[in-house]
Amino acid sequence: MEPERIDEPIRVLADCAGGELHPLRFRWLQRTYKVDAVNARWIDRKGEIYSLHYSVQADGQTYFIHFDSSGVQWWLDETIIA
Amino acid sequence: MNRLIVHLDVDAFFASVEQLLVPAIRSRPVIVGSGCIASCSYEARQFGLHAGMSLRQAKRLCPQAEIMPGNCRIYRCFSEHVWRVARRYAVSLETHLDEAYGDATGMEGIHGQPLELGGKLQRAILTEVGLPVSVGLAANRMMAKIASASAKPGGVVWVRPGRERQFLDDLPIGKLLGVGPKTARRLNDLNIETISDLRMLGRDVLRSMFGRRGEVLYERCRGRDYQPLRPDAMPKSVSRETTFHSPTTDGGELRGMLFYLLERAIRTVRRSGLLSGCVTLTIRYDDWKQFETSKSLPAPSDCEDVVLATVLALLRRLHHRRVAIRHVGIVLSGFVRACNRNTLFDVRSRVRRRGLYETVDVLRDRYGYGSVVTGKSIELLGRCEQSDYGFVLRTPSLTK
């Protein structure tokens, strides 16, 4: 299992029904990835700033993405190649 | 009316979080730690692995295990999420990183009988957070803890009031809280193997053997425990430790790392509204010889400069060999509540400095820990990578 650090901004299509964000698709390196499953989500609070983190499955791989409230931006943190 | 105390324990916490995040490692042996095992999954435990074992030995016993370095920040986020769910089922929650005690007395009307309540709580945490927990319910803290330990992994055990003795009878003496390996050996020498055997010793005998602790053991082996829940309990210690990326003889790097660890530890202390009264320094040389020494501070403090002066004095006392250092750690203890931080004899410069530390805390809260580098930790610039959370250490620090 190989984790690979990415740290790049991405565009995400998310559903916010029920007051929670659910990422559906994300676009990275001019390719669109469909989120097959959300493995886990957690909130990291840094004072008044928070970030919503997700571990998602797309194309059989695990991606760690997060939404940063301070920059109102989605980021791709890491991908894990099984 | 009998109380109903609930004890929750997240099963193999760090490893379970890693398995939750990465489906590819679910149902596979997983180790979290660097240098030694901080936590390992139940699949890994089947190979004889356990917390505290060196990674070298672990790899020999289970070469197929996935080794993860761990991320304390993520674990803390999950921990908070678990306790948020648990607060719906119990009040006065006393939380630690991977376990909590709560009072569920009177909740039966809402959530049903104790076993039903435990099951609901367990399912809620699994559904909402995704982590497996073991639940113990009993009339006091100690029995609830022993019950959850016997429920592991993923079970619910309720010790009915009045059945405490029967529950404890056949358990080995080492399962009783307050009986460590040394005490267990002493008791085993007297042919005391189980908790029911311990009841044969009178109060006076136990007191003469173990002092005041003997009195506590006398009560505990009968299933009695009078410790209250401490929702705002003061921690016994706050520690930060790490292994260098490569062993160092550089005094600047050593002092820089000590200051950085101290800064992180004392920030936790400051945020909890406490003052530290004692500091312990640990260093481990490259030949694995380890030394540790402690000193009380001149007065309890939450300021880096005051504690650093003591740490440097301890370092001078401890660092006397010409061997590279591979591991350093700082433990703050002897806490008192900081009701009024300013004392009659505080000089103005000290008050201003304290204000400075609090301002730096605010900046870090807003822009991330790594946004400000202070004091001797400047020595780490260019030596350690940085992220939003500060310097990237080889061993992520864990808090006791």
Reconstruct the topology from this structure:
The complex is a heterodimer of chains A (82) and B (400).
Chain A: E1 2-15, E2 22-28, E3 31-34, E4 37-46, E5 49-58, E6 61-68, E7 73-81
Antiparallel strand pairs in A: 1-2, 1-7, 2-3, 4-5, 5-6, 6-7
Chain B: E1 5-10, H1 13-21, E2 30-32, E3 39-40, H2 42-45, H3 55-61, E4 66-68, H4 72-86, E5 91-95, E6 99-103, H5 108-111, H6 114-128, E7 133-138, H7 141-151, E8 156-158, H8 164-169, H9 181-189, H10 195-198, H11 203-210, H12 212-220, E9 237-248, H13 251-271, E10 274-285, E11 290-301, H14 304-318, E12 325-333, E13 336-337, H15 348-367, E14 386-387, E15 390-391
Parallel strand pairs in B: 2-4, 7-8
Antiparallel strand pairs in B: 1-6, 1-7, 2-3, 5-6, 9-12, 10-11, 10-12, 10-13, 14-15
Helix pairs in contact in B: 11-12, 13-14
Q: What does this entry look like structurally?
A:
The complex is a heterodimer of chains A (82) and B (400). Chain A is mainly beta and 82 residues long. Chain A has one domain (2-81). Chain A is 0% helix and 76% strand. Chain A has strands at residues 2-15, 22-28, 31-34, 37-46, 49-58, 61-68, 73-81. In chain A, strand 2 (22-28) and strand 3 (31-34) form a beta hairpin. The radius of gyration of chain A is 12 Å and the shape is globular. The model of chain A has no long low-confidence stretch (mean pLDDT 90). Chain B has 400 residues and is of the alpha+beta class. Chain B has three domains: 5-158, Alpha-Beta Plaits (2-Layer Sandwich); 164-220, 5' to 3' exonuclease, C-terminal subdomain (DNA polymerase, domain 1), CATH 1.10.150; 237-391, DNA polymerase, Y-family, little finger domain (Dna Ligase, domain 1, 2-Layer Sandwich). Chain B contains 15 helices and 15 strands. Chain B has helices at 13-21, 42-45, 55-61, 72-86, 108-111, 114-128, 141-151, 164-169, 181-189, 195-198, 203-210, 212-220, 251-271, 304-318, 348-367, and strands spanning 5-10, 30-32, 39-40, 66-68, 91-95, 99-103, 133-138, 156-158, 237-248, 274-285, 290-301, 325-333, 336-337, 386-387, 390-391. The longest helix of chain B is centred in the middle third of the chain and has 21 residues, at 251-271. Chain B is globular, with a radius of gyration of 23 Å. Classes of the chains: A mainly beta (82), B alpha+beta (400). The interface between A and B is medium-sized, with 18 and 18 residues.
